[in-house]
Design brief:
The chain contains 6 helices and 7 strands; from the N terminus they run H-E-E-H-E-E-H-E-H-E-H-E-H. The protein has 214 residues and is of the alpha/beta class. It is globular, with a radius of gyration of 16 Å.
Length: 214
C-alpha cells in the first residue's frame, strides 16, 4: 500500500528538522547574501514576537538562533542550512516595530528587508509572526503590504499560544483570518504555535517543507 502523500510529507519534515541544521552566515547588507542555490523561508515579525525562539523550536534545539528579552537582538539576515547537503535555508530577519529604535536603524532595516524580499528568486515563502497576546498591529500590516507588493506568499503565525486562553486564541484566529483574506499574498492557512510547549510546531514544519519543495 502506498503511503498517503500528506503523511509522507509530515514524516519527511520530521526527519529533516530532526537532522543537521546549522548556522550558515549573517548578512548585514545585501552583498553578503549567500549564493541563491537553495529554497529559502524567511521569518518576519515585530521585535520580541518570538522569531528566533520559533526557529529553535522547529529545529528542536536551543541556542541555534539567539533569543533575548532585549528588543532588536537580531539585526541582520541570519541564514540557517537545513539538511546536508542543504535542502532549504531558514532566514531569521531583524524584528521591526520596537518603540525606541533609532531612525537610521529602522531605515536600514526597511531597505535591507525590502531589497531582500523583492530580489530573492529562491525565497519560497515568508512567515509573518504575530504575538497571540497582541494581534495584528500597524507595523504588521506594513510588512504584509510589503510582501503583497513583492508577491512573496506568506503564512501568518500566531506565536506564544501558551500565553493566552484557548477561547481568546480562537477569537484571534478568526479576526486574523478575516484580515488575511484581504491580502493577496497571504496564504489562507494560519498557524498557532508555542515554542514553549511545542504546539503547532510539527504542522509548521510540514508547511515549510511543502513550501520549499513545491
Ligand atoms: N511563553 C512563551 N515565550 C516565548 C515564546 N516564544 C518566545 N518567547 C519569549 O519571548 C522573548 C523574545 O523571543 P525571541 O525569540 O528572542 O524574539 P525575536 O522575535 O527573535 O526578537 P528580535 O530578535 O528582537 O526581533 C524571549 O524571552 C522568549 O523566551 C513562546 O512560544 N512562549
Ligand atoms: Mg531574534
Amino acid at each position: 500500500m502506498k503511503p498517503r502523500p500528506a503523511l509522507q510529507l509530515e514524516e519527511r519534515a520530521r526527519k529533516l528538522f530532526g537532522g543537521p541544521i546549522e548556522f550558515l552566515k549573517s548578512a548585514p547588507e545585501l552583498r553578503f547574501l549567500p549564493d541563491p542555490d537553495v529554497p529559502e523561508i524567511a521569518f518576519a515579525g515585530r521585535s520580541n514576537v518570538g522569531k528566533s525562539s520559533l526557529l529553535n523550536a522547529l529545529a528542536n534545539r536551543n541556542g541555534l538562533a539567539r533569543t533575548s528579552n532585549t528588543p532588536g537582538r537580531t539585526q541582520e539576515l541570519n541564514f540557517f542550512d537545513v539538511g546536508t547537503p542543504p535542502q532549504m535555508r531558514l532566514v531569521d530577519m531583524p524584528g521591526y516595530g520596537f518603540a525606541d529604535a533609532p531612525k537610521d536603524l529602522v531605515n536600514r532595516w526597511r531597505f535591507l528587508v525590502n531589497d531582500y524580499l523583492r530580489g530573492r528568486t529562491v525565497l519560497k515563502r515568508a512567515l509573518v509572526l504575530v504575538d497571540s497576546r497582541h494581534g495584528l498591529k500597524e507595523v504588521d500590516r506594513e510588512m504584509m503590504q510589503m510582501l503583497d507588493d513583492a508577491a512573496v506568499s506568506y503564512h501568518l503565525v500566531l506565536t506564544k499560544g501558551d500565553k493566552v486562553k484557548p477561547a481568546a486564541l480562537g477569537d484571534l484566529y478568526e479576526t486574523t483570518a478575516i484580515e488575511a483574506a484581504k491580502h493577496p499574498a497571504a496564504h489562507p492557512t494560519i498557524f498557532t504555535t508555542s515554542s514553549e510547549t511545542g504546539s503547532g510546531i510539527a504542522q509548521l514544519r510540514t508547511a515549510i517543507l511543502e513550501a520549499a519543495t513545491t
